[in-house]
Specification:
With 295 residues, this protein is mainly alpha-helical. The chain is 60% helix and 1% strand. It folds into two domains: 71 residues; 196 residues, Alpha Horseshoe (Serine Threonine Protein Phosphatase 5, Tetratricopeptide repeat). α6 runs antiparallel to α7 and α10 runs antiparallel to α11.
């Protein structure tokens, strides 16, 4: 009986947070952890209730709580808004449209490169609403319905993508470059599906799109690349088209398309190491056991 009671007392001593001051310290720990999260330091700091047992540490606690309450009383400047570019990178994609939508369109492209498809769609839709004559905005919307190395579009997604690209095709594109982007994507949406018996490629995101559509798109993008050899975005989208063909061709164990895409992306990376598409696509190009060491 004595042993049992002693064990119980030992167990109770092991739970200091059940004491009144322990609960206060636990609450303080949670507050400080949230404060550190706001400051972006939560990954570098381990917060424990034991931090506040000494007078010096309790002083730090009071200062921290004061700062936290001050931050909570005003809108948080670091809270991301829909379509926020800060965590997605920056691209330069000039378009022939009203100047007011240029920066938003570039934001949509950056989101597209990062696979934030729904967010990109909202941005492109906003651009199209503010400039109804902007054909390339409809291209952007259509691009968000196709996920080259994700699962193929559903029937509803394919229908929505086709509608957007058809609208883009019916409009006067602002430049030959913009018309090239639109025409290439139109090729994807209007190429018949290949044989259902063809092997389906896989990515870390799941099965990828039918091969025939992807190959047709790659060929169309190659023509655009040849016309604009110095255009960074054209080169990036073409490299991604080549990579998409590689993913859609699982029987190619040599990974020739992945290596081809990686070669182009490596050169682009030397020009702009912070471009969201180049870095992202390069990761996926090397996302194979036999190529992982290159990543």
């Amino acid at each position: 009986m004595v042993a049992i009671q002693k064990s119980a007392r030992t167990e109770r001593r092991a739970l200091p947070d059940e004491r009144p001051h322990g609960r206060i310290y636990s609450f303080a720990t949670a507050i400080v952890a949230e404060f550190l999260g706001i400051c972006g330091l939560h990954r570098k700091t381990v917060v424990s209730s034991r931090m506040f047992r000494s007078p010096r540490h309790r002083t730090i606690l009071l200062v921290t709580l004061g700062s936290f309450l001050a931050l909570r009383s005003v809108p948080c400047a670091t809270a991301p808004e829909p379509g926020d570019l800060r965590g997605v990178g920056k691209v330069t994609f000039p378009i022939t449209s009203v100047p007011d939508v240029q920066s938003d369109f570039a934001r949509g492209v950056a989101l597209l490169h990062s696979f934030f498809y729904e967010e990109a769609r909202r941005v492109f839709t906003s651009v199209a609403e503010r400039d109804p004559k902007c054909a390339i905005a409809q291209w952007g919307i259509a691009m968000t319905w196709w996920h080259p190395i994700w699962t193929p579009p559903t029937r509803d997604e394919m229908r929505a993508g086709k509608a957007a690209i058809a609208k883009a095709m019916s409009m006067n594109a602002g430049s030959d470059r913009e018309r090239g982007f639109i025409t290439a994507l139109n090729t994807y949406y209007n190429t018949p599906d290949g044989s259902a018996a063809a092997p389906i490629g896989q990515s870390c995101h799941g099965p990828v799109a039918p091969r025939d559509r992807v190959i047709a798109y790659e060929k169309a993008m190659r023509q655009l690349r040849d016309k604009h050899p110095d255009d960074f975005e054209v080169q990036t989208f073409y490299a991604f088209a080549v990579l998409a063909t590689g993913y859609a061709t699982p029987n190619d164990t040599s990974l020739s398309k992945q290596l081809e895409a990686a070669g182009m992306l490596e050169k682009l990376w030397k020009q702009d190491a912070n471009h969201p598409g180049v870095v992202h696509y390069l990761i996926h190009a090397y996302d194979y056991p036999q190529l992982a060491q290159r990543g």
